[in-house]
Amino acid sequence: MSAPLVIVGAGQAGMRASETLRRLGYDGGIVLIGEEPHPPYQRPPLSKKFLLGEMAEEQLWLQGDGFFTQNLIDFMPGIRAVSLDPRGKRLQLSDGTARDYSTLILATGSRARELPVPGAGLPGVHRLRAIADVIRLREAVADAGRIAIVGGGYIGLEVASVMRGLGKSVVVLEGEGRLLSRVMSPLMSGFFHALHLRHGAEIRLSERVVRLIGEDRVRGIELADGETVAADLVLLAVGGRANDELAEEAGLACQDGIMVDEHALAAPGIHAIGDCARFPSARYGRHVRLESVQNASDQARAAAAAIMGKPEAYDPVPWFWSDQYDVKLQIAGLAQGYDRHETEGDPESGSFSVSYFHGDRLLAVDAVNAPRAHMLSRRALAQTAGPA
User: Which residues of 302-328 are buried (b: 16+ CB within 10 A; e: fewer)?
Assistant: First the structure.
């Protein structure tokens, strides 16, 4: 019997790859290995509805009961791949067994980036990446008086909005001079800064954390100027890091992500998809790594098509979204490298969009409570050529 196709990682990307392979007629064995004890699930609600308790675990599942049996997929939850031998086409697993593979798909995802300061491991210090993280955070919030969030990115701000909705005292500590500075204009940063202030959150910019204070549990955060910010619950939300160690230790090229080509191929017989993969974008003239549902799903489908002998170059228009209070931010494209921007609509009205350009070329559009502008921007970006 020939070795099966093995997918390491049972998140959005791994799940969509297995679905697409079966839909395209792949009739060989498929093994889906997942480190968490849960079925594959959607992650965006974790920092919103699931954190609020408005969504049960079962509502997160990407497929219903019986999917794996009906599609002849061997799902292995609670198992981690600990080493990879590309020449021998073999994986060593955390349960002491080994798995041979015919084709391998790495969909190992990403994890919360750690803050390398003393005290980061104290009780009361949280990260948010998986179901277990949210359950721990949700249980701790009930007894929390003052919550400090380190990081003014999307996850940090989404959690701040949820915590303020629960009536909690919240302070957001951001190391840069404005919120979301790496991904949007000063105008948009200012809009979200003002939004959080209106809802009672404290926002502190250009703050560097040097250590977390406490003995039995966290009690506060010491800043570079010596000031201590009191907190009895701390969320570290300082970005994500690709889970590329398995690939790197096996000799695959990695650079904060597994390097792949336009067909998600990392090495002969090995594809990498989703958060863990860094792929070439002709559209933006560089390699990019995206942490988004869109990328996980679409790159999974592209890899499956390539495996089935129907390759198409993967170069998507990325899109994302973020829900904060009564604001829905929808983003199309990547704004990095813009040299000018244009605003349509009035930010004071709460419904507007900002378009980012490099010269005359449209790079990205941020739409605030403006779904039509978002859809039009995705169509416009799809028709925009890459850099000359």
Answer: bbbbbbeeebeebebbbbbbbbbbeee
